Amino acid sequence: MSEDTPMADVTVEKEQEQEVDLEKVKLLPGSSDDGAAASFQVIDEDHTLGNALRYIIMKNPEVEFCGYSIPHPSENKLNIRIQTYGNITAVEALHQGLDNLSEMCTVVEEKFSEKIQAGNYNTVAP
Question: Is the pLDDT of residue 1 over 60?
Fold first, then answer.
């Protein structure tokens, strides 16, 4: 955004960013009564998100276990299981993991853009 961008346009952009698909993530049956363990299903995702999200969630010291599976190769569904030590819920661990992964992607994108803008890189001719 530039300094010349009207505030109305900024508001519209932020509202568009805030749109969420309420059917994207589902809580699967079998959660623990205290919320420390739960399984989730994420629609239209695969190993790319599954492995990255599992890695980030496992970095949380409150998480005891996190694993994911793709139930069937022909279905675009990702199942993820999270178990915590009980200080936070599995839902909170998922939210924190998604936030942390998003922040990490933002940093990587910014660093990449900075390097491209600087132009100090070599290209390999075919």
Answer: no
